[in-house]
Amino acid sequence: MNRDNDKGKVLLQRLSILTIGSILCVFLLIGRVYYLQVLQAEKYKMLADENRIATRMLIPPRGVIYDRNGEILASNEQNFQALIVAEQAANIDETLSKFKELMPLTPEEETKIREEIKAKRKFVPVKLKDNLTWEEVSKLQLNAPDMPGVIIDEGLNRSYPLGNYTAHFLGYVGAVSDTDLKDTDPLLMVPGFKIGKAGLEKFYESRLRGLGGNVKLEVNALGRVMQEIERSRGVEGENIYLTIDSRLQKVAQDAFGDNSGAAVVMDVHSGEILAFVSVPSFDPNLFTTGIGSKEWNELLTNPKKPLTNKAISGQYSPGSTFKIVVALAGLEAGVIRPDTQFNCTGVMQLGNHLFHCWRHSGHGPQNVVEALKNSCDIFFYQVAMELGIEKIAAMARRLGLGEKTGITLDHEREGLIPDEAWKLKRFGTKWQKGESVIAGIGQGYVLVTPLQLATMLSRVVNGGYEVSPTFQKLNLKEKDKIRKLAISKNNIDIVKRGMFEVVNGEHGTAMGARFNINGMKMGGKTGTTQVRRISLQERRSGIIKDEDLPWNLRNHALFVGFAPYENPRYAVAVVVEHGSSGSGVAAPIASKILQEALKLDIK
Questions:
Q1: How far apart are CA 205 and CA 70, in angstroms?
Q2: Which of 75, 270, 320, 375 is an active site residue?
Q3: Which domains, ranges and CATH numbers included, belong to the chain?
Q4: Cα separation, 552 vs 532, whole angstroms
Q5: Active-site residue, 458 included
Q6: Which of the 8 DSSP states describes residue 104?
Q7: Which one of 77, 408, 489, 490 is CB 3.0 to 4.6 Å from 203, fit for a cystine?
Q8: Mean pLDDT estimate for the chain
């Protein structure tokens, strides 16, 4: 009996333990359910939302670029693009295969897409195609269930309404490169996002870009968008207003016709750039939408180099336009006075070397105004010899030559104003007197850019104020801060008078380009520079005419001009590559440009 009682007690104890354990388990389950469903409800609701809500960053509208009169130079256009999100695609190969049936991809495009998918995180969209038409968008949306992970996104493309008229100063935008990713802005990771790659688009990138927004979308298990839940538009990029006058820009560029070269028009009192031309040009819209290999090769192989910004990267011997600098240096140094004369017989001997004037019969006695008018080489040979290269170089640099202007564009070249120290460092030999003679007519080692020539002329004709070229309007306070150079007004007036005679005087070298608009006339200086070495044998047998030479061996044609003469406001520098004649080709182009500026009366 006792054994039976003991067994009953054990069973009862076990039953009690099980009962208590069961009760505890029920309470634990209830507690856990309460914890999860009540205390942690918000957390798991958020996790559930993350499973069904996709957040995408929105590219803000890029700032619009305007000319000085409010005409649009760069804006934005609607752009639909197809993207793929790897984590939402069941099978990348199958999805891409189906996509290619609807939208053909080149092998290069497919390779690039696959490389991006591998390189980026699975939740980061990768661009498949952009610039889709409405028909293409409809086709993709209709077949969306068969292409999990493929989404259609609406973005913006950069547009340049004036095309090749603005390419060399505006630049263009392009796809983000690995180098660009040093910038930590998350916008750079957004498929299809483009940044400034050249020109003012690049310089003003931080101002034009804006701040990204985002959109929350409800998606199904396949990643297909069901509805938009919330949208934050971000901040649009800042609008930029330039000093360019698009009306003058068009006239200036068209004036070149089929010629190759550059022109810059500046306000002589502020340095504001009114027109900025480099021809031939290219259409920056090609780079926005993705330039094809054929178009790219055509640009690269064109002998006239349309991709080169000749206004700041082209370095040319200034030729006789440099006589403005030498004349002013001679007057300032007291080497010559207004009535100083040198007799031009057509040739000058220095040691065993003969230096010729362009006019073989000579010009006879010449003072500085006459020498500028006739572009007499002998006069400036003499002035250069007496000045020496150091004084010539010092004046050239004061007027903005031989150094970068600081313009807000990439690839600006410094040009070259040689001196004794430069030659010793470059060649290990001393400067020779004959080299000063050659420099006196803007040849030899001397090199300038068209922008530097426009700057030089502006500083002379505005009375000696140290203006610098700019694409942004200056306010009154900024204009008041422009430094006055220590150059005599009387000497400047003498040089200006010489430039007036170049165009308006009898037999002036640019008399064919003269004009008179309501009493307003221009002044200027021609220049023609050799690009080939003429052998002694050719000199003896007869120099080959420029028109009989291949295009790339013909002389460069230059002209710098200003208007109106009485109260200068506009300065222009024109370089026509292999144009043969400064008076016959470059001066008429400059004349057209200055006449248009006067007619427009630019404010």
A1: 20
A2: 320
A3: 57-241 (3.90.1310.10), 246-600 (3.40.710.10)
A4: 9
A5: no
A6: -
A7: 408
A8: 87
